[in-house]
Amino acid sequence: MALTKQEIAQRIAQELQDKWYVNLGIGIPTLVANYIPEGIDVEFQSENGLLGMGPFPDEGTEDADLINAGKQTVTILEGGSLFDSAMSFAMIRGQHVQLTVLGAMEVAANGDIANWKIPGRMVKGMGGAMDLVASAENIIVAMMHTNKKGESKLLKQCSLPLTGVGCVKKVVTNLAVLEIKGGAFHLLERAPGVSVEEIQNATEGTLIVNGEIPEMQF
Amino acid sequence: MINKVVKNAKEALQGVENGMTFMLGGFGLCGIPENSITELVNLGVTDLTCISNNAGVDDFGLGLLLQKRQIKKMISSYVGENDEFERQMLSGELDVDLIPQGTLAERCRATGAGIPAFYTPAGYGTEVAEGKETREFDGKMYVLEHAFDAQFAFVKAWKGDAAGNLIFKGTARNFNPMMAMAGKTTVVEVEELVAVGELDPNQIHTPGIFVQRIFQGKGYEKRIEQRTVTPKS
Hints:
Chain A is an alpha/beta fold. Chain A has a single domain, classed as Glutaconate Coenzyme A-transferase (3-Layer(aba) Sandwich). Chain A is 16% helix and 27% strand. In chain B, helix 5 packs parallel to helix 6. Chains A and B meet through helix 3 and helix 4 of A and helix 4, helix 5 and helix 6 of B.
């Protein structure tokens, strides 16, 4: 069975390491905060100027002056801090944030990512995505393996305008966990009940399958 | 002490003209200079270039200036959900320059800090870097980005004093401090204009040196774009 969006987030949460500062993008990445493994302390950075981001506020306590980068009302946890946008991106470009999780429209076997623009359609902008992917030590892309037409989103080369070049090292999709190195996707884990053949058929870029591929564990 | 206080938005915006370039603080609708935007609508100035992370929504924030077709060009990182913006952009009435958010912030900071240009890794290898100088440092590629030139910066702070010292609240800080540094004339509106001496100098976010005019704002709507809550169990 292919993973749900929640399960993709849950699998990504297993990648979190103790004492990491983490930036979560909009969509599936946001859900990662719901599955922090026990015994792991992480702090979430929101690029609009907030470290130590907490859950959504209790009804009636929402504050227009406290939002995340998705413009949603949030809370700040004890030990959190507030700062301006230049300092926020100093944290990001200066690699003080250990992990970035973001969504993508396309990822290529060379580590390129496209997630901000579809030519001919309304362009909303890249926000902080280009700064994040250009600098993060660890980038995990959370995405569906194929588009609505069933076409692969894990490609030889991105067809859409790029957000960053050669920057993605790990991808978690509804079908698989993959590592990108040496110009290829390396299959690390399968979604429970999904065969290597299914993953192969859904991956346009070169897929390397080494030995027995384990199922993801939840 | 140099007194920066002006009576109201009208007095604060004296000298604003057609064709000028402005910086406007805020992230989404959080921390936007509501009073100055309203006054810009009242003044009816046109052909404006606006540097702002976002472009408001249809009926609030910079959306109000878009409705009146006062903006010629937007320089932003994300323009979001704004039908009128989309219509003007697709019809070619509005020129839009989209740039990475960290680059936008740093370009504002550089403007106020006397740094004409800087290298950043953001956008290297993408269309953002097209036509720009690139350079390798320690095996990694960077793009040269330049400071801005803005006649006015419109900033919103939580508290301020007559000397122009500012304190921001929550995530309403965002682009405001860098834009305050960058404006040739920086106009600040505050929720609370306090007497000099009331703000603890240790807690000042933006020193008054960057501020030319400050006024007590009024009628803040502080609209929430995405109201998300944890339901009561």
